[in-house]
Amino acid sequence: DTLHEVHDEL
Amino acid sequence: MNLFRLCGDLSHVISIVLLLLKIRATRSCVGISLKTQALYLLVFVTRYLDLFVTFISLYNSLMKVLFIATSSYVLYLMLTKYRQTYDKDHDTFRIQFLVGFAIVLALLTPHRYTMLEVLWTFSLWLESVAILPQLFMLQTTGECENLTSHYIFALGLYRALYAVNWVYRYLFEPDYWQPVTWVAGILQTALYGDFFYYYVMSKRRGKKLKLPT
Fold first, then answer.
1. For a surface tag, which of B5, B98, B141, B178 has the fewest beta carbons within 10 Å of its beta carbon?
2. What separation, in Å, do the N-terminal and C-terminal C-alpha atoms of chain A show?
3. Nearest CA in chain A to B165
4. Structural domain tally of chain B?
């Protein structure tokens, strides 16, 4: 999937 | 990880350290909104549920644990040891509206309708407005002691640095696209606008922060 769902920020 | 984001995270940590210093140094939580602190804990708990399902980096996980732990500790101090000093009469902002606002937007704007995504979206919208009870309290009392004003300034700085980080990532990471994060983050930073102005003015005059009433 897209980077929408990568919550790598705090 | 870029420099803006790292500095943003650090100013977030510094803000919490300042808050704890303030409570220790003055042995009181005068001027601190319990409602804002409770909302922050709710923000961290709902956002960092992914601690159990995704691993991004050791740094990321440790920071999440740190934020949940320190905000719980602040709340604990305010509710037990320094309860007598909590200025309840000035902490009158209706947080039902803020939670309602975040729930509605969380249901309208998630990227996908899964529990984690909806809660994550909720936490973003809630964080964007969670400072309002604190700013409102400041406005009604008109004045705040130095450490409290530094605390709010560091919190605002954290969001401003994150906004710069988004511009940076948008330019250099082609797949990076987080509209909800951006809008909520910019809203949050904007809420500090007024406060920033008076904070800088009070620093220039070398005086305590005093807001016009």
1. B141
2. 20
3. A9
4. 1
Alpha helices in chain B, H assignment, sequence order: 3-26, 34-47, 58-79, 95-108, 115-129, 132-141, 146-172, 179-191, 193-204
CB contact under 8 A, B175 and A8: no
Chain A hits for B54, Cβ within 8 Å = 7
Q: One digit per residue, pLDDT tens: chain B, 213 residues?
A: 999 999 999 999 999 999 999 999 999 999 999 999 999 999 999 999 999 998 999 999 999 999 999 999 999 999 999 999 999 999 999 999 999 999 999 999 998 999 999 999 999 999 999 999 999 999 999 888 899 999 999 999 999 999 999 999 999 998 888 999 999 999 999 999 989 999 999 989 888 888 886
Q: Name which of A4, A9, A10 is nearest B177 (Cβ-Cβ).
A: A4
CA distance B31 to B136: 11
Closest partner residue to A10 (CB to CB) among B63, B112, B178 is B63
Whether residues B64 and A8 touch (CB distance < 8 A) is answered with no
Residue B41 located in a structural domain: yes
- Is B174 within the bounds of a domain? yes
Q: Which of residues 1-10 of A touch B (CB under 8 A)?
A: 2-10
Is B209 a member of any domain? no
Structure tokens at B87: 């200025």
Does residue B213 fall inside a structural domain?
A: no
Domain extent for B27: 3-204
